[in-house]
Design a protein that fits this description.
Blueprint (H helix, E strand, L loop, with lengths): L2 H4 L4 H9 L7 E3 L2 E3 L6 E5 L6 E6 L3 H17 L7 H17 L1 H12 L3 H22 L6 E2 L6 E9 L2 E5 L5 H14 L3 E5 L6 H12 L7 E3 L4 H10 L5 E5 L2 H13 L4 E5 L5 E4 L6 H13 L11 E5 L3 H15 L18 H17 L2 E4 L16 E4 L6 H4 L6 E7 L2 H9 L3 E2 L1 E5 L3 H10 L4 E4 L14 E2 L2 E2 L4 H6 L2 E9 L2
Parallel strand pairs: 7-8, 7-10, 8-9, 10-11, 12-13, 12-18, 13-16, 15-16, 18-19
Antiparallel strand pairs: 1-2, 3-4, 5-6, 6-22, 11-21, 14-15, 17-20
Helix pairs in contact: 3-9, 4-6, 4-8, 5-6, 6-7, 11-12
């Protein structure tokens, strides 16, 4: 069923579909669903209810070895790596179409897996994932080499070749879309891919593997192995036949990916890690109401489980009280936790009980540090079984507080006052992270200076979270290295070869 048809389903229809859920739970290797070699499984829970959804195959090191060996053999055989560019383009473009055609299945399984609202799946995750594959399909015949200007009796050219086997390790907050961001450029460049979904959201990756085959992709080019990060993810990152790891997740684990590279074959590593994004609202912003709306959506969208969530609101002192008042009103009219299968729901649960406890723990720390709890701060009434947390706001925050410095990854926002431009830049940059930032001002000089001086890989001016596939996505400092989206990402999945002919 298509996206258009999916948008017409009501709460009852989604509940009925969930009751009749039937998905593949095995590993996907060499174009087939196969049982793990040790027969291990793990329980997959619904965060909205705390109840089991199913049991998923749990890979071991032996399964990682089998998947990598298969992917390497297919790469060497050339079924994908040497496929004509136009043919590879057709497969990826068809892949994107199949994602749209299976919108209901993708929306349902990601919502059940990690608690994302079904409406957000249909308006953001599914269409953007489909578009990701179609964008990268169009880049394939744009991967070009060069011929340099040399002496008369020589010919020198530089060509680009795929790396080999790429391990893609993706997080649970956008299971489908993050998988698309990682595997699409790797496939476009001609690599074979091992996708390792997060154990908290294991289902949609398997459907991707199946649809890649339906799109005409050769067996073994896209393998999908579920399991826990500390064993399967580590084994993939340490594997001597994996040429690159493309990782999105915590800064702590991102650092481990780089360590594992050094301990193995010096594989390439790209990491997109944590963030503590400042939204800086100057007193001269053209529309305070507009800034408030973006600020509310920027922290409470996807339950705050977003790497670039606007969790630090830096507000100029002269408009601080007015901003806070408007923010409270806007939040209460826009976000309240509920059943994520209800199209009217704007906020689902945290992904796990552990994540719920972690977020509540940060809220307790904020209160102990002396920040003022304006609203929220607990588990909402009427949701005793799921892993829900109320949208929460702290004022009276300074940048030395733990809640202002550490990534909470939940629906908790801190509002910090500042006096002038120098003060705002100093607070914004006083963090180990540098993924994104947002600036709200009507002064061109102010905007230009802040863009220059703020240490972040993505800066929005008078908006938040805008962009398209041409936008490089990645950060400064401990927010990681490398970029997702954009043409640069395809090139990062290739290596150059210099060829020199002596014609003398």
């Amino acid at each position: 069923m298509s996206l258009v048809e999916a948008e017409n389903l009501d709460h009852k229809a989604w509940q009925d579909l969930a009751e009749n859920l039937n998905v593949d739970t095995a590993l996907f290797i060499d174009g087939n669903f196969v049982n793990p070699k040790k027969g291990n499984k793990f329980e997959n829970l619904n965060p909205a209810t705390g109840k089991p959804l199913n049991e998923m195959a749990r890979a071991s090191n032996e399964d990682v070895d089998a998947a990598v060996a298969n992917a390497k053999a297919v790469f060497k055989g050339g079924a994908w790596s040497r496929m004509a560019p136009r043919d590879r383009m057709e497969v990826l473009y068809k892949f994107g179409q199949l994602i749209e055609e299976n919108a209901i299945q993708f929306a349902l399984i990601d919502t059940l897996d990690m608690g994302k609202s079904i409406s957000e799946m249909l308006t953001i995750d599914v269409p953007f994932s489909a578009h990701t594959f179609q964008y990268y399909a169009e880049t394939i015949d744009k991967i070009e080499g060069t011929v340099t200007n040399t002496e008369y009796n020589a010919l020198h050219y530089i060509t680009r070749e795929p790396l080999g086997v790429v391990g893609c390790i993706v997080p649970w907050n956008y299971p489908l879309m993050m998988a698309a961001w990682k595997i699409a450029p790797a496939l476009a460049a001609g690599n074979s891919v091992i996708l390792k979904p997060a154990e908290q959201s294991p289902m949609s990756g398997l459907l991707l593997g199946k649809l890649f085959m339906e799109a005409g992709g050769p067996a073994g080019v896209l393998n999908v192995i579920n399991g826990f990060g500390e064993d399967v993810g580590k084994a993939l990152a340490l594997h001597m036949d994996v040429a690159k790891i493309a990782f999105t997740g915590s800064t702590e684990v991102g650092k481990l990916m780089m360590v594992y590279s050094g301990q193995s074959n010096m594989k390439r590593v790209t990491t997109e890690c944590g963030g503590k994004t400042p939204q800086i609202i100057m007193a001269d912003t053209e529309s305070l109401d507009n800034a408030v709306e973006y600020a509310v959506n920027g922290i409470y969208g996807n339950q705050g489980e977003v790497c670039n969530a606007g969790s630090r609101l830096l507000v100029q002192s002269s408009i601080y009280d007015e901003f806070v008042s408007k923010f409270i009103v806007k939040t209460k009219s826009s976000y309240s936790p509920g059943d994520p299968l209800d199209p009217a729901t704007t906020m689902g649960p945290m992904v796990t009980r552990e994540q719920q406890d972690r977020v509540i723990g940060y809220i307790d720390v904020g209160k102990a540090e002396g920040a003022k709890l304006e609203f929220g701060g607990g588990i909402p009434a009427g949701q005793p079984q799921g892993y829900f947390v109320e949208p929460t706001m702290f004022t009276g925050v300074n940048n030395d507080m733990k809640i202002a410095r550490e990534e909470i990854f939940g629906p908790v926002v801190c509002v910090l006052p500042f006096d002038d431009l120098d003060d705002a830049i100093s607070i914004a940059n006083d963090t180990i992270y540098g993924l994104a930032a947002s600036i709200w001002t009507s002064n061109l000089k102010t905007a230009h200076r802040m863009v220059k001086e703020i240490e972040a890989g993505i800066v929005w001016v008078n908006c938040f979270d805008h962009g398209d596939m041409t936008q490089p996505w990645g950060g400064y400092k401990q927010s990681g290295q490398g970029r997702d989206k954009c043409f640069e990402t395809v090139l990062a999945h290739t290596q150059t070869k210099s060829v020199w002919f002596n014609l003398g």
